[in-house]
Amino acid sequence: MSGHSTPRSTPRSTPPRSISPLSSRTFTPYSLNSAIRTRRLTSSPRFYAVPHNKICDLGDTVRFQCSVTGQPAPWTSWSKDGKPATPNARVTIREKEDLRFLEISEVTLEDAGLYTIKVENNYGSVEATARLEIMGHHGVHTGTTVRSYSANRSSPSFGRRLVGSTARVGGQFTLSADIQASPSPATSWYKDGELLVKSDKVTPTWDGKVARLELDNLEISDSGIYTCIAENEIGKTRCSAELSVLNTPDISDAELQPPVFETGLPNRITIREGITYEMTVKIAGSQPLDVIWTKDSAELVNCSDFKYVDYGDGRYGLRFLDTFLEDSGIYTCEAFNEHGDATTTTTLVVGGEAMEDDTPLFSCSYGA
Predict the structure, then answer these.
(1) pTM
(2) What's phi and psi for 35, nearest 5 deg?
(3) 319 forms bridges with which residues in the sheet?
């Protein structure tokens, strides 16, 4: 962590920049170990990383991106609110190796809505969704209604969604997804369409913020599509991911390490307004490793205001160019690779006497 004074800039009169969606960070595509590829000459499509929900200002540029795999190589299609999304002067759809992108420039209120990517080949198909909300003068436009920040009721939506992964026979694996809703939703888990109930092998939990499914003593038969459904009286949503359980004794443990925070974020940070500040963490785990930062469950943009920093030695940072009172909130660093994910969270308070509570707060989920 570091901080030093800079000249105070004029406070923002627009909504906080911290939830602008365009990210220019380098996203490294995931790929299976070559030993695994030889075992799966053909396979249905699956996601290694899914698109995130976005909130942005009018006129911004927003990008949805994800990482997919399948054999033979799958084709993709995008839709918005159930209607095909096609390229035009403001909408760009492109592919680069395993990555899929949909980018919208000069965002308008009409661009708000639910975006879906469908990935398919001759052996199956899979879908993922992400919502785009637009900050207008009267609140947040979701595509169907304008929702004020003071609204107390909302249908469930996923922040951090399920991520497809691989695990080993005999190991343990945890699927987890962040869910926002009011009133609190009921959650349920399914495998290949069949409801899962608590047992010695399967443990579903819901703590009011994160839905988790813990799987113990994994077997090959535990491979499949896992779905989390969240529902309250306002609405219902779901997300899915594929888990592949492999018997791979020939692959060394060094190649199957999930992310682990060697140094996490402190429980609480209090800093002055109008300074440059950087949050830092240190992460160990198998590459490729992807790291994102969120504020109040919305993914942060890598830009001049919020700079993603990769020191190349396992240390990652989020640098604030100039802190504002509106930057106060709950910040999370999330790291994930093929073998699991981990998070560390802090509460940032801008405007008080500088101090840190150095008790780390982090969690992880992975296959042993």
Answers:
(1) 0.39
(2) -65, -35
(3) 278, 307
